[in-house]
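Page 42, continued from yesterday. The earlier attempt failed because a stray header line got pasted into the input along with the sequence. Redoing it now with the clean sequence only.
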Amino acid sequence: MKTINSLSGGKTSSYIAVHYPADYNVFALVRTDDTNCLFPDAKIRQIVSDKLGTEFIGTLEDDTIIYTILDLEQMLGTKIDWVTGKTFDEIIKRKNGTTFLPSWMRRFCTTEMKLEPIFYWWLENFKEPIEMRIGFRANELQRAETMINKLNKNGLSEFDAITGKTKTGNKNKHKLIEWQKPSFPLIHDAIFKDKIEEFWKDKNVRFAWMNNCVGCMHKEPLLINKMARLHPNKLEWFAKQERISINNATWKENITYDQIIKHKMQTELFNDDFNNCDSGYCGI
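This time it went through. Structure tokens are written below.
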């Protein structure tokens, strides 16, 4: 069974890539069509576009994540496969100009921009299920158990894949395909966050403060406000989607991003104030 390291751009999955060499390393990038979120370096934009095989304008994650993966590729001395799906704009935009927002119950953004691109990359390159290393640390047993409980009787994850069109051509045909067996090397070897942080102290790899969408709905309002000050154009993107959303939907219940952004916080955040769940961690 071939092994794959799923990279998120954070220190944990990058630690796995260094210490647990795999047959392949793969990274799924969240993109946007909004030129207000344009990645500032034109040369790097072209490099990323070439790696993805499609135009890269910008990302709704911290721009540093681009440098993280490029730095890590140099450190590893091996190729990292960059994949991407539709842009965030494409997956939420409706024909009438409104947007349909994901929510806690409908987390299709992670599926369509992270999981789906990796699955279809696997489908194009492999004929058998693979072992996917997942970056859960030793104190995240519950998250691993949740994932394990979703496996089928063969101990594999299934993906609801589109395999074509129905005879009428009006609907997609779907099929559940077995494709990966998750493994948790950091849990197995009792690796905690402190060891990972210590490892990266003297390494030439640049990391973002947080390695997921800066306006992720899973972030607490205080953190979203902090992100609005760090990434104003990107948080404006998230606020704009609420303004044009179907049925005036919001990313979070009972509060809009405009309200969060405008609020003057009475405290400042530090790098370790939030754990993975607070930061809206997205993984396979």
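Notes: The longest helix spans residues 108-125.
Reminder to self: strip header lines before submitting.
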